[in-house]
Amino acid sequence: MGLGVSMFLIAVGAILTWAVNTEVSGLDITVVGVILLIVGIVGLVLSMIFWSSWGGFAGGTRRRTTTQVDDGPPV
Predict the structure, then answer these.
(1) Spatial contact of 44 and 2, defined as CB atoms under 8 Å apart
(2) What angle do helix axes 29-54 and 3-18 make, rounded to 10 degrees?
(3) Phi, psi for 61 (deg, rounded to 5)
(4) Which terminus of the chain is more solvent-facing, meaning fewer CB atoms within 10 Å of its CB: N or C?
(5) DSSP 8-state code for residue 62
(6) Residue 27 bridge partners (DSSP)
(7) Whole-prediction pTM value?
(8) Neighbouring C-beta atoms of residue 40, cutoff 10 Å
(9) Three-state secondary structure call for residue 24
(10) What is the pLDDT of residues 10-31, one digit of tens each?
(11) Mind listing the pLDDT tens digit for each residue in 29-74?
(12) Which stretches of the chain are assigned E, i.e. beta strand?
């Protein structure tokens, strides 16, 4: 789960928890919102942990390598 998905889940969860005042039979909107908030926060924390350990794009130590395959002399 990336940062964008985590932020989206947090936003949707907050909206469902605090801004929606409708009743749905068999479903508690507030509980769904809290669950989405928790999943979003956990995803955000895990994304930040793995992002810092991975180093992001174009880390200074990586070099691009290419592999050339020689099939033999041209016919």
Answers:
(1) no
(2) 160
(3) -95, -10
(4) C
(5) -
(6) 24
(7) 0.66
(8) 21
(9) strand
(10) 999 999 999 998 888 999 999 9
(11) 999 999 999 999 999 999 888 876 665 555 555 566 788 777 877 7
(12) none
